[in-house]
Design a protein that fits this description.
Layout: H1 2-28, H2 33-45, H3 49-58, H4 63-84, H5 91-96, H6 102-110, E1 116-124, H7 127-139, E2 144-149, H8 156-171, E3 174-180, H9 189-197, E4 201-205, E5 226-230, E6 234-238, E7 256-257, E8 260-264, H10 268-282, H11 290-296, E9 306-313, H12 321-331, E10 336-340, E11 344-345, H13 348-359, E12 363-369, H14 375-390, E13 394-398, E14 401-402, E15 406-409, E16 413-417, E17 421-422, H15 423-428, E18 431-437, H16 439-453, E19 456-459, H17 461-465, H18 469-479
Length: 485
């Protein structure tokens, strides 16, 4: 009787905690119904453990963090106001030069993506290609280097880049580096302190509680961006981190296919703006915005004919901006929609957009990794891939790990960024993507995609039907948690 009382009491306490969490999810955090149902499933079948999971992964941002993010949004508007004053960024000329995509341009502008004209674009499909050119640009830096990476590893490639940053800092170049606390958890403070001793500055995004690595109450909200801006004129973004396996050095996931873009011209401005926003937040930097303008935003030069709009998303906004822009691009497509992503866990709106495009006669293709890095997410990905195949969308599994996050539409639009096609990237992580309006860049990436097809397996409806029953059960089970993946 004694033990039964304590068991009853324990379940009663857990029931009260679950009820409080449910009230918080509905009335305070205002989570989506499908997310609430997914968490209730975990809380019900994993009592106690589910509560710990929720505190670590599901709880919203604290009042203090939200207040800081609000200040960050204000500084973003201040910087953007100065950028818009430049003639190179004329709203009218931007829309006139791309009249057929005027509606997409306007949507991106409303989402904060100001059109930047006159850019030279270089695309990279492999990490070593990007790193080789990046090293050259870093060594040639004259005034400023700003870097922001989800993963900055203390390995071969990480040490090489760090040595260059230290060298430039000693030369007097102003070097700033942001790394994500969780993504770079295996890199010690000592590794980054070397740059600080050389005169550079370092910021850790969402550091752990009391700086104890194992206790991070913001585990679910990560800065997943990959940004480099050099002298305010050259910028990089995409999916490639500073880590050996992203260079294809990890045999288990090789060949590693990724994507990054180098932007020279006015398109460096919005990426500079994003970095400085994140920097001001992470360092609690109260430097007046206007103090940054002259040093970090030099008058841009026309370097090419590509127009660029950079879109960001994250928990600091009410809208899932990147997802909304992607949906607009997909339903507006006339000829083709080619997607590459490591994780494919879309919501109903995204599925509807792909379905509408396919039913409208658009050639829709999705390329996924043939070698997964996260088994649970991959099981859910396979479930959605099967659904897409059933409506006639071509699904390809790349013979390796597909880490690229790209969307190619028709003959003149291409998105390259850090955002995966899942709920985590669309709503929880801080992400960014570059929308590139360029027939030349589109054609080049189309060639890359077609080369990838030759290294991939086409999975039709029968491909999924042949899967073992245990695999199908796993896909159905893990799909239940899709809103949390």
């Amino acid at each position: 009787m004694h033990w039964a009382f304590w068991v009853f009491l324990a379940f009663g306490v857990l029931a009260v905690f679950n009820l409080l969490l449910l009230v918080g999810m509905i009335f305070l955090e205002k989570k989506k119904p499908q997310t609430i149902i997914a968490w209730l499933t975990i809380l019900t079948f994993l009592p106690g453990i589910g509560f710990i999971f929720y505190v670590m992964l599901g709880s919203g941002l604290s009042h203090r963090v939200r207040r800081m993010i609000k200040k960050k949004a204000i500084s973003d508007r201040d910087v953007l106001k100065n950028i818009r004053g430049l003639k190179t960024f004329s709203e009218v000329s931007g829309i006139r030069s791309l009249a057929k995509d005027g509606d997409l341009l306007r949507l991106c502008m409303d989402m904060g993506g100001y059109p930047c004209l006159g850019n030279d674009i270089k695309l990279f499909c492999h990490g070593l290609e990007k790193i080789a050119i990046l090293k050259q640009d870093l060594l040639a830096a004259k005034k400023t280097i700003n870097m922001e990476y989800y993963i900055f590893a203390n390995d071969k490639v990480g040490k090489e880049i760090m040595q260059i940053l230290i060298h430039k800092a000693k030369q007097g170049v102003k070097v700033k580096l942001i790394y994500d606390s969780v993504g770079s958890k295996n890199s010690s403070k000592r590794f980054f302190r070397k740059l600080e001793k050389a005169g550079g500055e370092v910021a850790e995004f969402f550091p752990p509680f009391l700086h104890i690595r194992m206790i991070n109450l913001k585990l679910n909200y990560r800065n997943h961006r990959k940004i480099v801006v050099i002298d305010g004129k050259i910028a990089y973004t995409g999916g490639i981190n500073i880590r050996d396996d992203h260079m294809g050095m990890k045999r288990k996931l090789s060949p590693w296919r990724d994507a990054s873009v180098r932007i020279e011209g006015g398109g460096a401005y919005p990426l500079q703006n994003i970095f400085l926003d994140d920097w001001r937040y992470a360092k609690n930097d109260k430097t007046p915005v206007e103090n940054y303008i002259k040093e970090y935003f030099p008058m841009p030069e026309v370097k090419g004919d590509a127009t660029v709009q950079v879109i960001t998303s994250g928990p600091d906004g009410k809208l899932q901006k990147i997802k909304e822009v992607f949906i607009k691009m997909i339903i507006g497509a006339k000829k083709r929609v080619y997607l590459q992503t490591p994780y494919f866990v879309p919501d109903d709106a995204f599925i509807s957009a792909l379905t509408i495009a396919k039913k409208s006669g658009v050639d829709v293709r999705i390329m996924l990794p043939g070698k997964p890095d996260k088994k649970t997410v991959y099981m859910s990905t396979l479930s959605y891939a099967r659904e897409m195949a059933e409506i006639g969308i071509k699904i390809y599994f790349y013979n390796g790990f597909m880490h690229a996050k790209t969307l190619l539409v028709d003959d003149n639009k291409l998105s390259v960024g850090s955002c995966n096609l899942d709920n985590r990237s669309f709503g929880l992580n801080f992400e960014c993507t570059a929308i590139i309006y360029s027939e030349e860049a589109n054609k080049q990436y189309l060639e890359y995609f077609e080369e990838d097809i030759a290294e991939s397996v086409l999975a039709d409806e029968n491909y999924f039907k042949k899967a073992p029953i245990i695999t199908k059960m796993g896909q159905a089970f893990f799909r239940l948690f899709a809103p949390l993946l």
